[in-house]
Amino acid sequence: MFTINDLEATAAFAKIIGEVAAPGDNLVLTGDLGAGKTTLTKGIALGLGIEQLIKSPTYTIIREYTNGRMPLYHMDVYRVEYDAEDLGLDDYFEGDGLCVIEWGNLLEASLPEDYLELILEKDDTDEQKRLVKCHAYGTKATAFLQRITTKWQATHE
């Protein structure tokens, strides 16, 4: 679990995720509305070297950003009424970039076999503070989480 104290720390944490991500990594972001899923994705994009404006793909479902060190496939499946197979998401999950899936928990059985889930929780006493719980499902996800943890600890000692 990570404790993120403010927006600056959120940006730093997200940038680390982008910096250590490897092609084929899948990241599921879970949390209430306003928990910071899209904010986190913006920082991840910076860590990948993507400087263009990152917008929530709420209505488009998928936005592709290909001008970084590897592609970012940003998905928001909140309004999806189909499974990932019907939408062709498997091609992204097994692709050459990083998939960031907001509300991915709603896909349930359609999620890839190997993914890292970050559950963002608001702190009741501090509007900017977030607790980030992590669950790695699979060997790639476990390695991804280890890279994040190692770099975060190295920059926050």
Automatic annotation (TrEMBL):
<keyword id="KW-0479">Metal-binding</keyword>
<comment type="similarity">
    <text>Belongs to the TsaE family.</text>
</comment>
<keyword id="KW-0963">Cytoplasm</keyword>
<keyword id="KW-0819">tRNA processing</keyword>
<dbReference type="InterPro" id="IPR027417">
    <property type="entry name" value="P-loop_NTPase"/>
</dbReference>
<dbReference type="Pfam" id="PF02367">
    <property type="entry name" value="TsaE"/>
</dbReference>
<keyword id="KW-0067">ATP-binding</keyword>
<keyword id="KW-0460">Magnesium</keyword>
<protein>
    <recommendedName>
        <fullName>tRNA threonylcarbamoyladenosine biosynthesis protein TsaE</fullName>
    </recommendedName>
</protein>
<dbReference type="InterPro" id="IPR003442">
    <property type="entry name" value="T6A_TsaE"/>
</dbReference>
<keyword id="KW-0547">Nucleotide-binding</keyword>
